[in-house]
Amino acid sequence: MPFDSHSSRPRRVALFSGNYNYVMDGPVRALNKLVAFLESQGIEVLVFAPTAKEAAFPHNGTLISVPSVALPGRSEYRIALGMPASVRRRLTAFRPDLIHVSAPDLLGHAALRWARRNFVPSVASFHTRFDTYPRYYHMGWAEKYITALMRRFYKSCEHVYVPSESMVEILKEQAMAKDLRIWSRGVEGGLFNKNQRDMDWRRSLGIQDDEKVITFVGRLVLEKGLGVFADTLDALKAKGVPFRALIVGEGPERERFEKRLPEAVFTGYLQGDALARAYASSDVFFNASITETFGNVTLEAMASGIPAVCADATGSRTLVDDNVSGFLVEPGNIEAFAEKLTALIEDEALYARMSDASLEGSAPYTWEAVLGALLDQYQEAVATYRLRNAGLQTPSEPEFAAAE
Higher confidence at residue 274 or residue 135? Predict the structure, then answer.
């Protein structure tokens, strides 16, 4: 049958993820948004991922649970030990036109092997700088080996979708993939905005009206820069700068972090209107992490009119216009972080300018535009793959390989 370029829009997409509904974070939020969008476009989606006894939130789409075990040392996360026969049969029966993998784990590797053997194009989204994690657990020697494994994984995909230009540049330097594309992130402007500011809520937490609130939002894990965050607040306190710290999120480091910052307000995990209220009721957003590939939390803070002080690293570098909508600081430079936070706390005119610039900078990031562009790239990936493999088995005439 001759190749028809007009048929390259995928009808069925199989998405593989290490986490889809049992822990809420930025990548999971983006994947759920993607599945809902694809289904709204008439595209069938099956999501294959580990699950826990209790989900963290109601997920979008059809989720196929893949057998898994708790990740050693991080039991809140789970890892699938490959793709069992029952899951392969479900995948084969689905007859996907495209495989999308979101993590270079054992399940992701199994999905790519299946795609190669069955002549189905595969793409990947790059959500997390896993290769930097060993730095926070006294295993820096392992970083180069993890990078090499990731490179082998991503180079086998038609496209690799990366959230920010700054992350693309780093991955190019690492020769991580053959075709890097941008899949940015969106923000719900109707939810995250200045009108959510609630002084009564602040007072209910014991925060005085004249206190400036420095906020962290995210998983309470070491790789989010918790140590730098706490050390910087110590430096502010030593300088006599008045502030209150607001910590929004949960994670294995919460108990230790609470002891480290005894005067901070910890809200636990928030979502929806409660999360939007926390952002808008803050004064400065502080993100010291260097592991973000995009930084959804930074974008949400900006949409709430809250200037951000961030490490000059991937993700934040794309979102924050240094000295305009916020500040970018050399990673780990406690004195510089403290200096920039102090400026925003003490200079009202500077704060007002950066608040307005943050709102303006967040405006182009809408989910509809972002996901529509990704669907166009899906179509290009399928078309390119089919042209290259014309005459071989293709999704248009599937004769899927027997279960491995």
Answer: 274
Higher-confidence position of 314 and 12: 12
Looking at the predicted structure, is the pLDDT value of residue 138 above 60?
Answer: no
CA–CA gap between residue 287 and residue 317 (Å, rounded): 12
- Cα 111 to Cα 164: distance, rounded to the nearest angstrom: 25
Q: Which CATH number fits domain 5-186+366-388: 3.20.20.150, 3.40.50.300, 3.40.50.620, 3.40.50.2000?
A: 3.40.50.2000
Q: Domain spanning 194-362: which CATH class is it, in words?
A: alpha beta
Asked whether 288 and 216 are in contact (CB, 8 A), the reply is: no
**pLDDT, position 353:** 98
**How far apart are the C-alpha atoms of 202 and 380, rounded to whole Å?**
49
The answer to whether the Cα torsion of 224, 226, 232, 233 is positive or negative is positive
CB neighbour class for 266 (10 Å; exposed up to 12, middle 13-18, buried from 19): middle
State how far Cα 373 lies from the chain centre.
18
Distance CA 335, CA 327 (A): 13
The values of phi and psi at residue 235, to 5°, are -65, -40
Q: Show me where the domains of the chain are located.
A: 5-186+366-388, 194-362
- From residue 236, alpha-carbon distances to 87, 218, 258, 331, 338 in Å are 53, 22, 18, 17, 6
Provide the β-strand partners of residue 14: 46, 99
